[in-house]
Every structure is written in C-alpha cells, then in structure tokens.
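Work package 3, deliverable 3.1, input record:
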Amino acid sequence: MTARWTSEQVASMAPDAASAKAARKLAAPHRWLSLARGETAAWGEYQGSGRDPYRTQIELAGPAFKCSCPSRKFPCKHALALMYLLVEHPDALRPQDPPPDWVSDWLARRARRAQASPASGPATPAARAKTRAKRRKTMAAGLEELERWLRDLARQGLATVEGQPYRFWETMAARMVDAQAPAVARQLRDLAGLPGVRADWPEQLLRRLGRLYLLAEGLKRLDQLPPPAQADLRSALGWALRQEDLAQGQAVHDRWLVLGRRVEELEAKLRLQRTWLWGTGTGRMALSLEFAHRAGKPFESVFPPGLCLEADLLFYPSGYPLRAALQEPYTLLEPPDGPTGHLPAAGALAAYAQALAQNPWVDPFPMPLQAVVPLRQEDGWLVCDETGGLPLRRSFQIGWHLMALSGGSPLALFGEWDGDGLLPLSAWAEGRLVDLEAGPG
Amino acid sequence: MTSAGGTQALFEALVGAALLGSERQPPPLAGAEGPLADLLARLDPADPAGALLGAAAAVDLYRRAGYPPRPVPLEAAPPACDRHDLSRVSDRAAAHLARMLAGEHSQVLPEWLEAAASAGRRAPEEQLPALLDAGLDQPKLQEPLLAVLGARGRWLAALNPRWHYAQEAAETPETEVAFTQAWETASAEHRPRLLARLRASNPALARQVLQESWSQESAWARAEFLAQLAVGLGPQDEPFLESALDDRSQTVRSAAVDLLARLPTSRLSQQTLERVCQLVNLKTGRAVRFEITLPQGCDQAMQRDGVDPKFKPPASLKLGQKAGWLLQMLRLVPPATWSRLWKQGPAELVGIAGKGKWRALLHGGWSEAILLHQDPDWAAALVAAVPQWAGLGLMEVLSPEACQALALEKLRASRGPLNDRHPAAPLLECCRQPWSASLTRAVLERLRGGSWHYRLPAFARYMDPALTDKVHHILREGDKKPTYSQPVDDCLALLAFRREMLKELAS
C-alpha cells in the first residue's frame, strides 16, 4: 500500500457516529477469528450473533468494502473495525498469499466492473437531444411559475413573509422538484428558515430571492448565452450533468492533494459530498461532487483531506471550470509536507471576484489561504494576514481548535467562501494537513 | 465605480423598499456609478417588481465581487506562543487522548495525564480545547492536566476567559507585592489555592495576609481560607485560630477546632485530652478492658471547644446523646496519644475495645480521629479489625502500597471465592491506585469460580496492564466457543486500552 491512512481518516469514513463508536469497540485483534492481508486487500472473519462468522474484506486501493453481515450501513462497523486494525495494529494481520476464494472472487468481480462502461440514460444522440428538449420545456414552465411567485412577493413586500407557515415555501419547492430543478427547490426550502431568525434576515432573503430571479431570467435567455455560461446556468438549476457532457471537457493530469471534504445532508436522505482537490503541479483547484441517494449507500470514493492522488481529472465545461470527474485508474501517493501556491487574503478575494466574473453562480468558492492568524472579535472569529481579515462563518464551531493549532503564528488554511463568510475545512500544522470538518480526533 | 460604502447603502435602500413592496414605491436605484449604474438603468421601470429583484441580484453580485478584506490592526492579534515547549505526545497517544475526551474509557483520563506528565510530554494542540473544557466540567482533572498543557496550552487558556483557571494555576506570585496583587484580583475559586501556595513557602506571611482581609471575607471564604492554614500548621497559628473559635459562622468555628486539635501543644488539645482522660480508662489486670463514664453535661467551655450538644451519632453505632458528646471529643484527640498513654500498640488497643461493651463508641471515635489526624498505623489496625469500615475513608489514610498490602493479606487469609461477602471486598474497593502485579494475580485467582464478574470493568481500571494476556487467558479458559459476556469484554477492552496507552506514552 503506497499511502498511509490515519485513524482520523478512518473515522471520517463512518456513515454516522454510532457506527464509528461500534467499530472502535470491535477494533481489537483478539475479537476476530482471523485477520490477514495481501498485496491489494485485507480481510478477516468475525463471529457475530449469527451461526457463521461474518466475512469482511477491504480493497486497499479504493478503498472499497464488503461484509457479509446483515447491516444496511455502509461501511458497516466490521469494515471500519478492520480499517482501524489495519492502521493501528498492522502486525495483527498476517500476510497471506494467495487470498482465500471469497476474497479473490470479489476482487476479480470489482476489476471486471471497473472495465465495463457505465450505460446510463439514453444511448443515441437523437434520443439524448429529445430528453434534453423535454427537460428544458418542463424547467422553463416551472421557472416561469417561480418568476410569477417571486414578483408577487416583491410587490407585496417581504414583510409579509414573517408570519407565513412552512407550507408557503414548501409548495413552491415541491413545484420546482416537479419541474426538475432540484437545486432551486433546495434553495426555497432554505429560505423558510430565514424570516425572523437573525436580525439581518430581510437582507439575506432579498439576496437569495434576487439570485432566484436571475436564474429564472437566465433560463429564458439560455440560447443567447455562450455554451460555458449555459452549462453553468443548468448546473445552478440542478440539472445533473452526465458523463457524455464531459466529451467536451478538458482533461488535466497532475498530482492532486485533497484539501477538504464536506458532506452535506440535503432533503429526503440525499447526501452531497464535496471533495476539493488541489493540483500541486498546475496550481488548479478542482471539485469532485458526488451524491448518495439512500441513507446507507456509500459514496463511490471517499478521500479524506491529506490524501494525495496522481490522476487525470476531466473538467466539466464552465465559465470558471471547477467541477471535475476523477478518471480511473489513479494511484495514491505520499502527501506533501507543506502547502504550495496558496494566496493572501486580499489575493484570494480578488480570485473570487475573477471567478464571479466568469461564472456568477460559483458557490461555494474554494479559498486556499497562505498564512493567516485566527482572531477572536466581539461578533465572531476572523482569519487575517497583513492584507486584511476574512470573517469565518457562524456555523464554524471550532475556532478555538484553529487557535490552538496556530499558536498565534500564521498557518495555511483551506476553506469554502460563500461571499460572506469562510468555512475552514483544513489547516496545515506541523507539516500535516488537519481535517477541520471531521472534528478534532 | 461604485464604492463599497455606496454599494452597501444602495443595497440597504433596496432592502427597505423590498420590505414594503414594490407596489408602494418604485425601487430606489440611485447612488450607483459606472457600469453598475448602466446596468441598473437598463431595468424596465414599468415592471417595478422585476426591477427590484433584478437590481437586488445585480447589486448583490457586485457587492460580493468587491468584498474587501476587513481592516484588522495586526496588533489586535495576541502575540504568538512560546515555540520552546515540551515535546508533543506521539500521534497514537494523541489518538488515545482523543478517544477518552470523546467519552470512550474516559475514567482513565487522569492516568493518561499523569503518565504523559511523567514522560515530560505535552498534549497535542488539537485536543487542547477539549482538554481545557474537560477541566471545567470535572475540576478534579485540573491539577493533572496543568502539567501537560505546555507553553501552548497555557497561552491558549489565557485567551479564553472560561479557561482562566489554567492560567491562574500556572502563575505563582514570587514576591510579597505580587502576591498581594494576585490575592486581591484572583477569582473566588483561586484564592484558597493562592493562599495554600504562600503557606507552603511563608506560613507567617500567609497568616498575616489572611488576618488583614479577614473581616471583609464572607463566611464561606473564611472557612475555605482557614482550611488552607493546614499547610505549614504550627504553634504560632494558635492565637489566630483561638480567636476564630468565637467566629459568627459555625463552619468557621468547626474548621478552627479541627486545626487546633492538630496542634498538640494548643490549649484546646490539652484541655480536650484532660476531659477525655477523666472519662475513659484502661483497666489493666486480669481482665483488660475499657471503663467509660459518660459526660454529664455539655457546658459552654466544651461547646466552644468543638462539642455540639445536638450532635446525633451515626445510627449504625447505636449510641445515645451523651455518648455522642464523648465521641466528638475522642475525635479531636490524636490516636497516637493513646498508644503513648497506655503503652500499647494500636492493634492491641483496637482489639481490647473490640471485646468490650464500648466497642461502638471507641471504634467510632477512633475512626473519626484517624481521619482527622491521618494516622496510618491506627488506620491499618482499625481496618484489619473492622474491614467493613474500609469505605469510610480509612484506607485513603494509608499509602497506596500499604492499602494494597492490607487487601492482599485479607485476600489470602480467607478462602472461598471472591464476591460481595468476602472480607477483602471492601478493602479492594478502596484500592484506587494502580494495583501491583501480585494483587492483580491474587484477585484473578480468586475470581475463578466466583460470581463477581460484574466488578471486572471497575477493577480493569486498576489491574496491572502488564498482565493483560494472563487476564485474557484466565477469563477465557473453559470457553469452547467464544461467547463473550459483557463485563468480561468491557474489562478486557479497558485493560488492553490502558496497556496500549501506557506503552505509547512510555516509548
């Protein structure tokens, strides 16, 4: 195995806190009936409550997990425990070559699956064009309705929303889901939480309503926009991009360092994973986006911050290309021991302005900062350098950890900027990248 | 170009208009300059709702793109911490600490802190906030965690008012002036500690400082501070303590009595001894026994000297009111006095008392005296005779080694499996320091065939981790199929964790 995993990274792969805790309890060598490892995989047998022991296996390159236990969670506590053992008690897994049948069969099946091309959606270009047109029509109708609703709201005044029930927003959101514009639906549901909560809610509300209006107007003029802007608008509406669209994408080969990873819980058990990658050679930032549609379903690839991969990334067309798809095969490498090519605060904001000019929908914006010091003020936390300070988002709860890591000296930080506040996702301390999103330890 | 201030004002105007609604007034689009003004001019005034929303979108985008970094005077930033520091614990040790702070095996956190401190290491930076918070929730952790904070931890604690306890503890005022300053400004929880530290180096000065501010302190504070005079207690403290016997507050008076009782040359000690000697007598001769006359009254002098006339003795002793007065006086006399007076060792005297009718009074009074005067010889003797009283604090008077030696002796003396009713059980419960290998082995042997497995997780905290494999073997033997029962699992998990964490810190 070329890369080293840490316990924190294993913990970040758990689907929830209960699994992580349960896995910890199982991560003791004496509790397993057998433990072994080979070149590309590790496996073990655990006696659970069933008659036959559970067979758990991990393919190290992915990592990919499989376990014969009946749990619906993924990775299950046995798989996580096996990962912990691999990290903390490597001697407990004796080398075994060749692996037993139940391991080699699974590895072979995985290899075959990776080669087979994914067939999803309509095959022929004509069929594709037809689906597209249909979707465009549905969306257009939906957004027209949204526009009318927005205008009504603007006419009557925002003060009227203060007393409105959740239904007021939810009905429109459901309509957007029907219109195949899920991103818009999501934003509408978020709006429901604004009125009356913070002192500046009217400002926040107007900003978001303005943005929605811009989306609706934009869709009306879609054909007049240049192709990259069209792609960005569709993305902002929540029109999922397909692999076929990537034919026009640009492939970039580099050694990519994972700078941050964030999982957001969206509606109806939908989870969104954002993995930010920094090309150490090209100095480019990339975003790998993945959705998981069921509660227990895993993300295809889980890369904790600090991991380094040599790979091709295929960038989706955009006015400011960020979103990219990781191409297989890729190799895991040893991570570098320090940041490269980060910016000062003012420089990062200038980069944001540049990005907005090329794609006004970019949100959140990746901000690698070179050397900032955390500072606590009356109204919250800031990170600052000699060019100025950037406020941290209120949802960032661990300002003191940042303070402890910095010790008052500047440190390199990576976070997501939303135009108002920065959400730190990772920081460099003592030659290592510390994941701030997963929490300390 | 519209300035940042201009943009903000423009947006605020838009918000105001939006709240009222575009029906009431047209959107206020003035105040923009340059390209933004051009864009806003293109909005259709005949469509006020659309113009309002469009303007909001455009101005907001403009504002976000032009967001300036906040001017922050870098002098506002605290100075960087001292880079010269203890070395950090290893990553694996840090992972152990993280698990304990998250709640897993948290009962052995003090052990980890002590081991890290002895190894001269400091806690990892990322755990400092959680560690400092833990000190707030569990004040008992404060002392051990101070040693592993390092320069970084103390620096951090100084920045957050919630963690000032750590910073206060780190400061030891050297000079008298510094002390007086600290004394006046310290928090209520910290002042007793400050006083105790001064007592250790300069008892007379500490007493003097206390006397000066005595009248302004609250009753609670007076009692707390008086208790600190236990450090470096000497005959020079007697006048002050004697005056405290007349204090308004009961707690202060009791504290003064306790301290005076610990000064053998004090008037209170000598008078109490006189009173007790008139009432308690050791009759020698053929039948050696204690003869006791109960006191007839509880006069003013006795009350001033610490005897509460309304005191109720513990119900288990089954003593009356007058016996209660004698009990209180017995408590004040150091047990060693009796050995000197009657020329017999503690074990003998305890044995004689145990056979007579005044057993409850004498044993009860002596047990209180042992706790007040912290006499290990008498503690060992009394616990050996009355093991069920071990839980009352007598065992803590002994050193951990003596404690465990007693428990081991009792364990070996009685046959039979280890369970609640075994005579060694209460002693074992009191051995709350890491056990020696021999005690661990003895307990393990006795657990075979016993029914005390549910105590295993509690014992796992103290058992010698070097014997983990042996524990595993003994508890598993006889199992053909590994059906793990919960307490055994928990015990093994804790023991394995302790072994790992101690090994990691020692390396």
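Chain A touches chain B through 66 residues (CB under 8 Å).
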